[in-house]
Each structure stands twice: as C-alpha cells, then as structure tokens.
C-alpha cells in the first residue's frame, strides 16, 4: 500500500514531454538515481531516505488502517506530553517577556 501511495504522489514529479522537447521540472521531495539499471538498490536507498525524512510516518498517518487500542493510548500520551511541553515553554517565554517589559 505504501508503494501505491508513493506512486500516486510521484506522478507529478516526472518531466513532461511536449513536441519532442523535454521540460525538466525542479526536483521536489526525494530524488533517487538508478545506477546501472539496479532498481532494487534504488528502492532500498529511497526507503532509507523516506525513513530518515519522516515521509513514511506521514504516509502511514494519512492512510486509514486499524490502530490498536494500546497504540492509541501511546499516541495520545505522546500528544499530551507535547502539548504540556509547548504550554510550559509558552509560560516561561511569557514570564521572560513580562520581566523584560517591567525592568525596561
């Protein structure tokens, strides 16, 4: 399924040929070169690049699939911790700004 999603997303990346001329589009996303016709190696490189860039997680998040309850709890806890960290950071920045304003 992930490969089908990638194929759909990659349809707009190929250069369009018109009247015998090839118009190259600027590269977007992940670019992988196939050397010596070694497609398997290129796919491995692409998967590694996807994992490191986080695209794989985005694709998994967008595709609808069953999520176990234990996984839901883990994801909810992570989201809660991120919200708490963000709120704490906001409070500390607010306090710093108030101190600066009062001391000026």
From TrEMBL:
<protein>
    <recommendedName>
        <fullName>30S ribosomal protein S21</fullName>
    </recommendedName>
</protein>
<comment type="similarity">
    <text>Belongs to the bacterial ribosomal protein bS21 family.</text>
</comment>
<keyword id="KW-0689">Ribosomal protein</keyword>
<keyword id="KW-0687">Ribonucleoprotein</keyword>
<dbReference type="GO" id="GO:0003735">
    <property type="term" value="F:structural constituent of ribosome"/>
</dbReference>
<dbReference type="GO" id="GO:0006412">
    <property type="term" value="P:translation"/>
</dbReference>
<dbReference type="GO" id="GO:0005840">
    <property type="term" value="C:ribosome"/>
</dbReference>
<dbReference type="GO" id="GO:1990904">
    <property type="term" value="C:ribonucleoprotein complex"/>
</dbReference>
<dbReference type="Pfam" id="PF01165">
    <property type="entry name" value="Ribosomal_S21"/>
</dbReference>
<dbReference type="InterPro" id="IPR001911">
    <property type="entry name" value="Ribosomal_bS21"/>
</dbReference>
């Amino acid at each position: 399924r992930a490969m089908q999603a990638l194929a759909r997303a990659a349809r707009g990346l190929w250069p369009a040929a018109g009247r015998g001329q090839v118009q190259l589009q600027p590269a977007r996303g992940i670019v992988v070169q196939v050397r010596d016709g070694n497609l398997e190696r290129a796919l491995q490189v692409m998967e590694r690049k996807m994992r490191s860039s986080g695209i794989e997680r985005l694709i998994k998040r967008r595709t609808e699939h069953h999520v176990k309850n234990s996984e839901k709890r883990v994801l909810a806890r992570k989201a809660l911790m991120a919200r708490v960290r963000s709120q704490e950071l906001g409070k500390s920045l607010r306090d710093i700004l108030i101190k600066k304003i009062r001391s000026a």
